[in-house]
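Weekly structure sync, notes
Attendees: PL (lead), two postdocs, one rotation student
Agenda item 3: pending single-chain targets
PL asked that the sequence for the first pending target be pasted directly into the notes so everyone works from the same version. It is reproduced below exactly as submitted, 226 residues in total.
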Amino acid sequence: MEILIVGPSIAPGRKGAALLRAAGAVAGDARVMAVDGGLDHCARAGLRADLGVGDWDSLRRKSLAEKLPAGARLTLVASKDRSDLFHALRALPRLLKGAKARSVRLSLVGFAGGRADHHLASLLELHAYALRSHPAVGAMRLTAESEDYHWVSPNWGPWRLSLKAGTCVSVFALQGVARGVTIRGLRYPLRNARLAGSSHGLSNEALAGRCEITLRSGSLLVVLPK
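Predicted structure, written out during the meeting:
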């Protein structure tokens, strides 16, 4: 099962339109969560939100939130110490009822680019979620204009992806230390290694075939520039 989470940070223009089209393609049978101004983008893409979460400060058409059924709308207070994305991730169980363990993939769009502090906060919240995710979640990806972000968690099993030879792949531990890290299919492999928050893992390179990353504890962020 797929859950598409649409955020507010989608720029106007061709690249933003392409992201929205991709979101629409993903959302064929997916459940959709819109976070604040993401409701505007869902409306533009013809996506029906199963759940809307936000304080609605970045939502241009306030009526979109007002039209959501009460059970499909979570309105947050404006003065809070965590982001809308944090609260959206906490609300995910509403869309996960009946899902089997590791059967759900989270696909996010609209949480990268824009203000640098918002971008970093989103990456940190998603990285933390990879450590404490709902048992039904088995993978998570954030799509942006210039790169894709994937998370690796021991709760989700091996991360695997087939990549063209020469593809740039960067792997980071954003929070704490990742232990037992094994990387195969890249020019610079690792075996049972320890990664902390540093540039160690920057600009590795895919060999022909499948890349695989596993770890024993912690979580990893994989960045794939487009």
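Discussion points:
- Helices lie at 14-26, 38-45, 62-67, 84-90, 116-131.
- The mean pLDDT is 93.
Action: rotation student to compare against the earlier draft before next sync.
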